[in-house]
């Protein structure tokens, strides 16, 4: 505050030596004259302006005093600094002054040039102003081409959606392709590109995007597994052909035996199929076959297999037939039982535990922690009443 007062005092000293027409525009001078006339000579010239300026400074000093680094640096800002910029921007936007808010955003982005959230916030605020389409484009271009690291493509994807909204679909497509040049295995960008091609070119155009990426030598197996699942989702959700989607999963499972996203999406696909009392048995066989493939064919770690089997066990309880309890208990023993009987994957061999020497405590090295006790309906559990301890005996 002291610095602001010094600036104003110097301005007042300068103002006494210069003609009025150099110091303020005509409308401001007219306002001052009106204030003088209304005060009948009892208020010093510019007193109301000084009071207003002090009010502006005081209201912002809380945020200004917390700005520890007003310049750009490659090191990250701490959370307190980021929170202060967020609050300062909230305050200035609430004041509803376009020029002040824009100026504060520009100041903020000097310090926070590498942070997606402030570029996107600036673009969203600017897009809410009438007739500012070119300014929004300029914000996205500065962020995408100069400041935000290419490893963070979120702002570039927002830029692509903005250009698509503006009717420049070819530019939006080029933005997606530019991202994939630098990070070819970014699944979100590939899916976004496929969806954009579907919106403007139909389902076949989207499938062509997935096929191109699946044939690309730059795509690794984990990326291809996720894209196969997205391809099947398109056939199911957009084309309305679950059978074609199922064939995509079945034909490609041999290539992605160790991919968790592939098997998760395959299982979720079968679980989410609409069914009826007459078709439930058929759907049950399909879901059971997926689980058997996961346990016998996949190369997933046992922990992942255990989680997928647990999902199937919940299905048995919720949608199974009268024989579901028997299958459930068998799986419960094999998945969550002790090491002597548990084998999440079929075909696993349980190795006998070597005998311990006399008077030698059992070794804990490389021991396998016990499987957590499961409760398939734990999402229905409620907190103990009256601060009681869950599971503790109650007094009658």
TrEMBL record:
Keywords, ordered alphabetically: mRNA processing, mRNA splicing, Nucleus, Repeat
Record InterPro entries: HAT, HAT_PRP39_C, TPR-like_helical_dom_sf
Keyword Lyase applies: no
Principal location class: nucleus
Example GO BP: mRNA 5'-splice site recognition
Keyword Nucleus in record: yes
Stored PANTHER family: PRE-MRNA PROCESSING PROTEIN PRP39-RELATED, PRE-MRNA-PROCESSING FACTOR 39
The protein's name: Pre-mRNA-processing factor 39
Provenance organism: Aspergillus ochraceoroseus
């Amino acid at each position: 505050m002291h610095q602001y007062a010094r600036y104003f005092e110097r301005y007042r000293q300068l103002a006494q030596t210069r003609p009025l027409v150099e110091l303020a525009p005509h409308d401001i001078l007219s306002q001052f004259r009106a204030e003088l006339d209304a005060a009948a000579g009892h208020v010093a010239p510019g007193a109301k302006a000084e009071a207003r300026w002090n009010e502006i400074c005081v209201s912002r000093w809380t945020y200004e005093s917390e700005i520890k680094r007003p310049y750009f640096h490659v090191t990250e800002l701490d959370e307190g600094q980021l929170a202060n910029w967020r609050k300062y921007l909230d305050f200035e936007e609430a004041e509803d002054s376009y020029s002040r808010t824009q100026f504060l955003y520009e100041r903020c982005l000097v310090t926070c040039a590498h942070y997606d959230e402030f570029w996107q916030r600036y673009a969203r605020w600017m897009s809410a102003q009438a007739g500012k389409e070119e300014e929004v484009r300029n914000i996205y271009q500065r962020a995408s081409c100069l400041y935000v690291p290419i490893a963070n493509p979120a702002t570039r994807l927002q830029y692509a959606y903005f250009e698509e909204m503006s009717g420049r679909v070819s530019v939006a497509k080029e933005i997606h392709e530019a991202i994939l040049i630098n990070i070819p295995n970014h699944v979100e960008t590939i899916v976004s590109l496929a969806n954009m091609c579907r919106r403007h070119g139909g389902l076949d155009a989207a499938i062509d995007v997935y096929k191109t990426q699946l044939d690309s030598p730059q795509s690794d197996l984990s990326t291809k597994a996720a894209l196969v699942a997205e391809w099947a989702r398109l056939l199911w959700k957009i084309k309305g052909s679950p059978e074609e989607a199922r064939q995509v999963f079945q034909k490609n499972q041999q290539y992605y035996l160790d991919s968790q996203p592939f098997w998760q999406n395959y299982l979720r696909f079968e679980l989410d199929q609409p069914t009826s009392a007459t078709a439930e048995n058929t759907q049950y066989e399909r879901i059971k076959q997926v689980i058997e493939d996961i346990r016998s064919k996949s190369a997933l770690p046992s922990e992942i297999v255990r989680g997928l089997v647990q999902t199937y066990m919940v299905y048995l309880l919720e949608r199974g037939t009268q024989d579901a309890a028997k299958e459930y208990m068998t799986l419960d023993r094999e998945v969550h039982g002790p090491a002597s009987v548990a084998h999440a994957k079929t075909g696993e061999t349980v190795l006998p535990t070597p005998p311990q020497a006399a008077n030698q405590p059992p070794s804990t090295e490389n021991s396998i922690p016990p499987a957590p006790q499961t409760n398939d309906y734990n999402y229905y559990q409620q907190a103990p009443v009256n601060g009681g301890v869950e599971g503790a005996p109650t007094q009658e």
